[in-house]
Design goal:
The structure holds 2 protein chains of 2 kinds.
Chain A lengths: L1 H19 L11 E4 L5 E8 L2 E9 L30 E10 L2 E9 L4 E11 L2 E7 L7 E7 L4
Antiparallel strand pairs in A: 1-2, 1-8, 2-3, 3-4, 4-5, 5-6, 6-7, 7-8
Chain B lengths: L2 H15 L3 E6 L3 E5 L6 E10 L2 H7 L7 E13 L8 E10 L2 E9 L8 E6 L6 H6 L2 E10 L7 E13 L2
Antiparallel strand pairs in B: 1-9, 2-9, 3-8, 4-7, 4-9, 5-6, 5-8, 6-7
The chains are: A mainly beta, B alpha+beta.
């Protein structure tokens, strides 16, 4: 009897785990690990609630050459946050899926200068993103092409 | 001479307005879970803090309409079980809720090795935390930088203290 219960428990465990996870949404195609064109970093995009966020999970040069220690967000305009590790930094924030393979109303942070820009993301195909950062007018922005790390 | 009545009215007005009042609001323990398997590097732990602002203020004789400002003044993290904070190299905490974008509110890098709890440095620049509190549920996101892979979930607890400024 105990063995049967144990087996039943083991069978149900993955099911309860699945139920605990949020159900997939159409915008979840964006979820995954992506590499910007400069190839210096990799960014993992995940959904939190109904919005999408991306954080750095890999850096080609993880250490600051000047100090030999892991890079931190030394250009953050808020001095109190300049010890935030760059590996793990959330540089894409608050994207909403608008349909037609577009995620809008987000922001992108550039750790090179500590600036945050408005941003839209367009998926060109399952493994390619156009990331357009801009100030004020979308037409005056700059687009970078990101590639999915584990191609589908 | 003509200025005297105006000055008197101004003083009278100031006296009747009174100084803003301050309250301290504690979150209590906020459970944050990163679902395993987890990998070396940054992993996302999440939890929800239902602030209960209306009830908190009502118990003290205030209404939400009187809330002028909210500031996070203290943030602390502790381990939820015997693993304490072991193997976590750093933690950074974000809050998001309502129509407001995610904002970074606290960080500790590095965490003291093998500590059971740690005080975090709080952001100096904070945006519209009063609105965030009014929105009800705040999603707390903690990025845990793990020193090694682990199969199981990781569970930590956040404690937050806010200072509320209220109109009398």
């Amino acid at each position: 009897m105990r063995t049967t219960l144990l087996l039943l428990g083991l069978l149900l465990l993955p099911l309860t785990r699945l139920q605990a996870q949020a159900p997939p949404e159409p915008g979840d195609r964006l979820v995954g690990v992506w590499e910007p064109s400069h190839g210096k970093a990799r960014v993992k995009i995940e959904r939190i609630g109904s919005k999408y966020y991306g954080k750095i999970v890999w850096l080609r040069e993880p250490n600051d050459p000047a100090t030999g220690t892991p890079k931190v967000d030394k250009n953050n305009p808020d001095e109190a946050l300049r010890t935030v590790p760059l590996r793990g930094y959330r540089l894409l924030k608050d994207f909403s899926y608008a349909g037609n393979d577009e995620w809008i109303e987000g922001t992108i942070y550039d750790p090179e200068n500590g600036s945050t820009y408005s941003c839209v993301i367009s998926m060109k195909d399952a493994n390619t993103l156009d990331i357009r950062g801009y100030i004020g007018v979308k037409a005056l922005g700059r687009t970078d092409v990101w590639k999915r790390l584990q191609a589908k | 001479m003509r200025l005297l009545p105006s000055a008197a009215i101004l003083l009278l007005g100031l006296a009747s307005c009174g100084a803003p009042e301050r309250l301290t609001m504690e979150s209590g323990p906020v459970s944050l879970v990163a679902a395993g398997p987890l990998f070396e590097g940054s992993n996302t732990a999440q939890g929800t803090w239902t602030a209960g602002l209306e009830a908190f203020l009502a118990e003290r004789g205030y209404s939400t309409g009187q809330l002028r400002e909210a500031r996070l003044v203290s943030a602390r993290i502790s381990g939820a079980d015997s693993t304490s904070l072991r193997g976590i190299r750093s933690v950074s905490v974000q809050w998001v809720g309502g129509d407001l974008g995610m904002q970074q509110v606290a960080v500790r890098n590095p965490l003291p090795a093998d500590s059971a709890a740690a005080q975090l440095t709080v952001a100096a620049e904070q945006r519209k935390l009063d609105e965030l509190l009014r929105s009800g549920a705040i999603t707390v996101v903690a990025d845990l930088d793990l020193a090694a892979d682990q199969e199981s979930d990781r569970h930590v607890i956040g404690y937050f203290t806010l200072e509320l400024t209220l109109a009398p």
